[in-house]
Amino acid sequence: MATGLFFGTFNPFHRGHEAMVYSFLSSGTISELWIVPTPSPPHKDQAEIAPFRDRWNMVELAVSGIKGVRLSDIERHISAPHYTLKTIAALAGRYPDHGFVLCIGSDTLQTMPSWYKYKKISGYVSLLVAARPGIPKDPPEALDEFTIHYCKHDMVDVSSTEIRNEIAEGNIPGSGMISPEIAAYIRNNNLYRS
């Protein structure tokens, strides 16, 4: 089976991300999942993003015990901007014996037509989609050339923005939003304070 790729800023990694990891792994579409934290996403305000090393460490804390998951720092070795197409092409070149599947939420599916040279991505990967709260499941017509698989997913309605806002107000979110290990890491490293 193929290798799943789960890209994200993970700022921070939360229970919604964790639920998606389990859904992707249990989909029957992939045999393993590579999580690819992005050093500097081209579409986000860099001032709101924790240092890459901290985000990497938090993902590692969250998934270290999950069988079939590994972290990839491929984007540390690719020049910015870190477009998905560039990263997938680099992975395909580095691992020619792998078949890759891009694992995304249904919210990301809706925004894909705005990505850099998004149509070329279909030459490298199929898509595995997990539903997100309040987001249409059906793909935009612009994605007709993609092979799209869907996985059963128990949605966890939480966002990184919501978590950062809580922390900025002096609250560490509860375990329903982030793991206790990540909460401790955020507290100990004084992340997301305004």
TrEMBL record:
InterPro entries named in the record: Cyt_trans-like, NadD/NMNAT, Rossmann-like_a/b/a_fold
GO BP term (any one): NAD+ biosynthetic process
Reaction(s) catalysed (UniProt annotation): nicotinate beta-D-ribonucleotide + ATP + H(+) = deamido-NAD(+) + diphosphate
One Pfam family recorded for the sequence: CTP_transf_like
Name of the protein this chain belongs to: Probable nicotinate-nucleotide adenylyltransferase
Listed pathway(s): Cofactor biosynthesis; NAD(+) biosynthesis; deamido-NAD(+) from nicotinate D-ribonucleotide: step 1/1
Limits of the Cytidyltransferase-like domain: 5-165
Family: Belongs to the NadD family.
E.C. code: 2.7.7.18
GO molecular function annotation: ATP binding; nicotinate-nucleotide adenylyltransferase activity
Coiled coil: none
Cited Gene3D superfamilies: HUPs
Swiss-Prot/TrEMBL keywords: ATP-binding, NAD, Nucleotide-binding, Nucleotidyltransferase, Pyridine nucleotide biosynthesis, Transferase
Role, per record: Catalyzes the reversible adenylation of nicotinate mononucleotide (NaMN) to nicotinic acid adenine dinucleotide (NaAD).
PANTHER family, alphabetized: NICOTINATE-NUCLEOTIDE ADENYLYLTRANSFERASE-RELATED, PHOSPHOPANTETHEINE ADENYLYLTRANSFERASE
